[in-house]
Specification:
Elements: H1 2-21, E1 36-39, E2 42-45, H2 56-76, H3 80-90, E3 99-101, E4 104-109, E5 118-122, E6 129-133, E7 145-152, E8 158-165, E9 170-177, E10 182-192, E11 197-199, E12 202-207, E13 225-230, E14 239-243, E15 250-256, E16 262-271, E17 274-283, E18 291-297, E19 303-309, E20 312-317, E21 325-330, E22 336-340, E23 346-353, E24 356-363, E25 366-373, E26 378-383, E27 389-392, E28 401-407, E29 414-419, E30 424-429, E31 440-448, E32 454-462, E33 474-477, H4 492-499, E34 503-507, H5 517-521, H6 529-544, E35 553-558, H7 560-571, E36 578-582, H8 601-604, H9 610-619, E37 633-639, H10 648-660, E38 667-672, H11 683-701
Helix pairs in contact: 3-4, 3-11, 6-7
């Protein structure tokens, strides 16, 4: 502790020289406590612990941060209004791809500027639509409700939908009677991280214990239970189907086969440093007990049931196949058969519609669509250009066709119809855009990381951009976690940035799933530093190849991508001009103390393990802010109702950055009101935060806004 006090003394000496030599922003003084924790003999200071709770001191500090943000916006963000209008013009929020459920098609659309999206339905691809659910009709005063997910019963008589209040992860499920066009009195509460699956006139859902009043966003969620609800009955009469006996460090997921015959459970339990996985199945027709399909330790192996056809489970797996393959398992004979072998492409997505297997493959920036019969014979193949993303393909064996979507970084999705009888595709609806997207292009490259591993990266820019000017503005963003893949996706801000002379750089860093499960494993737990090395190496590569320079690089990421940005910001502040962290996981020693974050031990590790603790401490962004270091201008965005990555991560990080950095660069906190992990639900809210984010980036990189 003596050495820590000495470093703080040096900091204030250095700070005095800075005050004399340049103008200095006076930041709000954060409430501090004399708090330190000891882990395996290591004393760790946590003086900002009080910011984890919403006490009076914390509220006053937040109000002061909001005032500072407003002052900065008025003084520095001269382009805010122009950027806001730009984003509004090209956001295409009311253009949503159709979601097929049964015989009808559904989509979300904003009714007005200040509401969350409403759910619409239409009978045919190009038919007239009708409003069926406006979530605000269930809201109380000053409350914003958002439909997070919905499911239609197989006979389409009922539609169950989950409502989130002002962005919270807690859900309330309600039911619409489609035949009578009215809502039932049924209300299912304390639902979290749950899908909805219908079985006749019943549906399954996950429920947790009701938290203590006032601690709904902080208290650890406990006692995950799978219930079955029968319509027109109270929730207290629901049947508990499955309960996890271990109260913590365990969780489960469920699915239902499309014929509603089998209920599938995926259970996860921590055993020392490994997570043991078990797949169970239950025959709903015979109401049998759960049987074990597979039980195995989490050693880079994954199994996922695609569907059941004639008592055969079709399973996507990477067992001895890093790029994944499809096998079948006969429930009666217990025989396993390989249906589709692994190939050079990553099998990114698989489904069964009309007794045909739809396989979406990915390799080196390109998607490919294949259709197989149930024996694995290839019936159809179609390739797509570099920089285009392929998604969609919802349906079941009662369908003969489905829809899919093609999008990129600079244009929203086109909707296509896939006919599974004729094996043909047809463009259904083109994006209604007012600019020529042929003026932009994406190239796919690979660059070496610190250890020599080649990392894929998308570079998107306006055609004719001089890629060796050494002065191009660059927006470098990434994710790198949970095996999730970063693929091209439209954002009006991306379009605006590249049209104004910028280059959008999207590296597929380790921890993601772009190159299969091994790529994920190479960037999690004790390998997490690889994720940050990959992101840092992307910036170094762009500088080394004379694409840009450190004064022209902005870095951005959200959630675990926010962790990546925070870690790289603290490890290599010399490489970047500015950083925007959105809902970032920044305190790696206390990330698992609240909500359901303890299930992320399999991704990050736990402080209860000595090896994992020292690994977490080594890269935790909060704990690696150094006294007297000049950090890049930083905007930290969080949400008051984020119970997935609680806002205290952002509070503690920005408080420490404001106190310890000696530079005059701005360090700002943007708190989104009535918002959760995915930001505001209203169009107005989304535009406001996006406009602030891009105004901040444009200001720091000294960019001029160019019209399309």
């Amino acid at each position: 502790m003596k050495s820590l006090k000495f470093r703080y003394l040096l900091f204030y000496i250095f700070l005095s020289f800075e005050i004399y030599s340049q103008s200095y922003t006076v930041y709000p003084v954060a409430p501090k406590v004399n708090q330190a924790d000891t882990f395996f003999g290591e004393i760790v200071d946590d003086r900002y612990r009080t910011l984890e709770t919403q006490n009076e001191e914390t509220r006053k500090w937040i109000i002061s941060q909001e005032k500072l943000l407003t002052q900065y916006k008025k003084k520095e963000l001269k382009l805010f209004s122009s950027i806001y209008n730009y984003l509004y013009s090209y956001n295409y929020s009311n253009y949503k791809p159709l979601i097929k459920k049964g015989k009808n098609f559904y989509f979300f659309k904003y009714q007005d500027f200040y509401s969350s999206p409403s759910l619409y339905r239409q009978a045919t691809y190009l038919g007239n639509s009708s409003l069926i659910i406006n979530p605000q009709q269930f809201a109380t005063e000053n409350e914003i409700l958002n439909i997070t997910n919905f499911e239609v019963s197989s006979n389409e008589n009922y539609l169950a939908f989950a409502l989130s209040e002002s962005g919270k992860d807690w859900r309330t499920i309600k039911i619409r009677d489609n035949e009578k066009a009215k809502f039932l009195d049924d209300e299912i509460q304390w639902v979290k991280y749950s899908n909805i699956k219908w079985f006749k006139d019943n549906f399954f859902y996950w429920k947790y214990d009701k938290p203590k009043e006032g601690y709904e966003l902080l208290e650890k969620v406990k006692n995950q239970k799978l219930f079955c609800h029968k319509i027109n009955t109270p929730q207290e009469n629901d049947t508990c189907i499955f309960e996890i006996p271990e109260k913590e460090l365990s969780h489960s997921e469920f699915e239902l086969t499309s014929d509603e015959k089998y209920l599938i459970l995926y259970t996860f339990k921590r055993n020392e440093r490994l997570w043991e996985k078990t797949i169970l199945y239950k025959n709903l027709e015979t109401n049998s007990q759960f049987e074990t399909l597979l039980s195995y330790p989490d050693k880079k192996t994954e199994y996922s049931i695609i569907d059941n056809i004639d008592n055969k489970f079709y399973i996507l797996t990477n067992y001895h196949s890093k790029n994944y393959k499809i096998i079948s398992y006969d429930v009666n004979t217990k025989d396993t058969t390989e249906i589709i072998s692994e190939n050079d492409y990553l099998l990114e997505q698989a489904g069964i519609i009309a007794h045909k297997i739809i396989a979406v493959y990915y390799k080196d920036g390109k998607f490919k669509l294949n259709i197989f019969d149930l024996k694995g014979n290839n019936l159809f193949e179609k390739s797509f250009n570099t920089g285009y993303q392929l998604s969609g393909f919802q349906g079941n064996n009662n369908d003969t066709e489905t829809t899919f979507f093609v999008s990129s970084f600079y244009f929203p999705a086109d909707v296509y119809k896939l006919n599974l009888i004729e094996l043909s595709t047809k463009l259904l609806s083109e994006k209604q855009i007012t600019y020529n997207y042929d003026n932009f292009e994406t190239q796919f490259i690979k660059y070496p990381s610190k250890d020599g591993t080649l990392i894929p990266m998308y570079l998107t820019y306006k055609t004719g951009t001089d890629l060796q000017s050494g002065n191009n503005p660059v927006l470098l963003f990434g994710y790198g976690g949970f095996g999730l893949s970063l693929y091209p996706h439209y954002d009006a801000g991306y379009l605006m940035f590249i049209n104004s002379g910028g280059i959008l750089a999207a590296p597929q860093i380790r921890g993601g799933g772009e190159l299969g499960s091994e790529w994920h494993d190479a960037g999690r737990k004790l390998n997490k530093q690889n994720t940050f090395d990959d992101f840092i190496s992307a910036a170094e590569y762009l500088i080394h190849t004379n694409v840009t320079n450190p004064n022209k690089i902005a870095i951005n990421g959200g959630s675990t991508g926010g962790l990546s940005v925070g870690a790289c910001l603290t490890q290599r502040p010399d490489l970047f001009k500015t950083a925007v962290i959105e809902m970032g996981v920044l305190d790696m020693l206390r990330y698992d103390k609240y909500g359901i974050a303890y299930i992320h031990h399999q991704e990050y590790g736990s402080v209860s393990d000595s090896v994992e603790f020292f690994n977490l401490l080594k890269y935790s962004p909060l704990h690696n802010i150094k006294v007297g270091t000049k950090y890049p201008a930083t905007l930290v965005i969080t949400a008051e109702n984020d119970d997935r990555v609680q806002p205290f991560h952002s509070y503690k990080f920005i408080a420490k950055l404001q106190e310890l950095s000696i530079t005059t660069n701005p360090y700002l906190l943007y708190l989104q009101k009535k918002s959760g992990h995915y930001g505001p639900s209203t169009l107005e809210g989304k535009l406001n935060v996006s406009a602030f984010k891009y105004s901040f980036i444009f200001s720091q990189l000294k960019m001029k806004l160019q019209k399309l």
